[in-house]
Design goal:
The chain has 439 residues and is of the alpha/beta class. Helix content is 32%, strand content 20%. It has helices at 21-24, 88-105, 125-135, 147-159, 190-203, 217-232, 251-258, 273-282, 327-334, 344-361, 366-376, 389-397, and strands at 12-17, 30-32, 50-52, 70-78, 109-117, 140-143, 163-166, 183-185, 208-214, 236-243, 264-268, 290-292, 313-317, 384-386, 402-406, 409-410, 424-429, 435-437. The strands form four sheets. A seven-stranded mixed β-sheet has the order 10-9-11-12-13-17-18, with helices on both faces. Strands 5-4-6-7-8 form a five-stranded parallel β-sheet, sandwiched between helices. Helix 3 runs parallel beside helix 4 (147-159), helix 5 (190-203) packs across helix 6 (217-232) and helix 10 crosses helix 11 (366-376). The chain is elongated and about 65 Å long. The N and C termini lie close together (8 Å).
Length: 439
């Protein structure tokens, strides 16, 4: 099960990682709160972030009354091509399912989604897609999945006064980005994933680590936080080699890392892992010495020989499919071909949060929606917890505060648009080159 803790209103919220929790408690690797995990003996000093939860009086009033004729138009820039294309289907299915369920509720708001491609940083696909979506007067754009891609269009989107809401951007660069208060995400910052990954590798008994990382905001940031955590746990990162999106060969980087003979290697990439992994295994690094991350934790059953990466581990934000209940079944009704559900819940919750904020504001103006996003997510520290659109809408019509908790978990947004509660799952590859959650 996942572990979550919430701080009450007016209390500072402190991030703590349950270090050593893999072996000791066997639960979700992260708890964000001001009180959790205080009695654990950590393998390393936890990093901390503190932000002050706003008072209820700091938020706009929710006006009671029925909502009618709200036409909410959202666009998506999710990867239909490029290095993260495997994430596109579950993310788009999550968006489509949320749109379907909101519209079927028949409560005075109709959502239209316009799907466009984000591509990757080797193309200008995202810019073209954003230009098209802005011309269609969308209130929000969901995406991109790649932090690097989002950084190429965030000024274009927020500069137009439109909300950008990513289900998968994890780069820490967005926390303090000058986005005019219009960037939100349901995925946690890589300060969290890096801490979990670094401590996982140390917990597994590895003393030295090599890192192969994509040279962009996502890759370099995650490499940095993984390094900090691993070395704080007593290990040593003996080599870090970067490569660029679109590179055709990684021989030099692989040689430089393996020359240092590290106990383990972390691969921080997108689909470059399909090339990097066989080369590393062939060079003497079997699966149980390899570590993956959310950008490449994928089903490799069609790419690798059986057993190639048995024992390899990886990290991925979000709840496990068992906890999600019938959510995956509903996703399969949208897209029966789905075999991976990465960031589907975060995409679903992004649409739900936008729609509930519009409903609370009784407006589809992006500025109005943005002014209610923290509020409907529980940012006031008050309000009844709700997990579906109809229940939330019923309370809003009564003028009541709500605290929406989605399938990605409690998603309370802080003043930066970051979620203040998060779970990082730990997964292990089996003989079939697919992965199972182990925490």
């Amino acid at each position: 099960m996942s572990a979550f803790a919430k701080a009450s209103a007016s209390r500072s919220r402190t991030l703590k990682t349950v270090l050593g929790g893999i072996a000791i408690v066997g639960v979700s690797a992260l708890v964000l709160s001001g009180c959790a995990a205080a009695e654990e003996e950590p393998a390393a000093e936890p990093s901390t972030e503190t932000s002050t939860e706003a008072e209820a009086g700091d938020f706009a009033e929710i006006t009671a009354g029925e909502r009618t004729d709200l036409e909410l138009k959202v666009g998506t820039i999710l990867p239909q091509s490029g290095g993260l294309a495997f994430l596109g289907p579950p993310e788009e299915a999550g968006v489509a399912l949320a749109v379907k369920e909101i519209n079927e509720a028949g409560l005075g708001i109709n959502v239209e989604a316009i799907y466009r491609d984000s591509g990757d940083t080797t193309t200008d696909t995202a810019t073209v897609s954003v230009t098209d979506l802005l011309s269609q007067d969308v209130s929000a754009i969901i995406g991109a999945a790649s932090s690097g891609v989002s950084l190429t269009v965030i000024d274009q989107i927020t500069g137009a006064g439109v909300i950008q809401f990513s289900p998968a951007n994890t780069s820490a660069a967005f926390t303090d980005y000058d986005d005019q208060g219009l960037f939100y995400r349901t995925a946690p910052s890589d300060t969290l994933q890096g801490e979990v990954l670094g401590n996982l590798i140390a917990e597994d008994g590895h003393a030295t680590l090599g890192i192969l990382a994509l040279n962009d905001a996502y890759g370099t940031g995650l490499a940095e936080y993984t390094t900090e955590a691993f070395e704080a746990a007593g290990g040593e990162v003996v080599a870090t080699e970067l490569f660029n999106e679109g590179d055709a060969s990684f021989d030099a980087q692989i040689s430089a890392v393996t020359a240092e003979n590290p106990d383990a290697i972390a691969i921080i990439s997108f689909d470059q892992a399909k090339v990097l992994t066989p080369a590393l295994v062939g060079g003497g690094y079997p699966g149980d010495q390899l570590y993956f991350v959310d950008g490449n934790l994928a089903d490799f059953s069609a790419d690798f020989e059986p057993g190639l990466i048995t024992g390899a581990k990886g990290t991925l934000p979000g709840l496990d499919t068992a906890t999600l209940g019938d959510f995956t079944d509903r996703l399969l009704e949208i897209d029966p071909s789905l075999t991976d559900y990465s960031y589907a819940a975060e995409s679903y919750d992004a649409v739900m949060a936008i729609a509930l904020a519009a409903y609370a504001a009784n407006s589809t103006d992006p500025a109005d929606i943005s002014s209610y996003l923290r509020q409907i997510s529980g940012g006031t520290g008050e309000g009844e917890t709700v997990t579906d659109f109809a229940s939330a809408a019923a309370l809003i019509v009564e003028g009541e505060q709500i605290d929406f908790d989605g399938y990605s978990g409690p998603i309370t947004f802080d003043e930066h648009g970051d979620p203040t509660d998060a779970t990082i799952g730990i997964y292990e590859y089996n003989e079939g080159n697919t992965y199972d959650r182990i925490n």
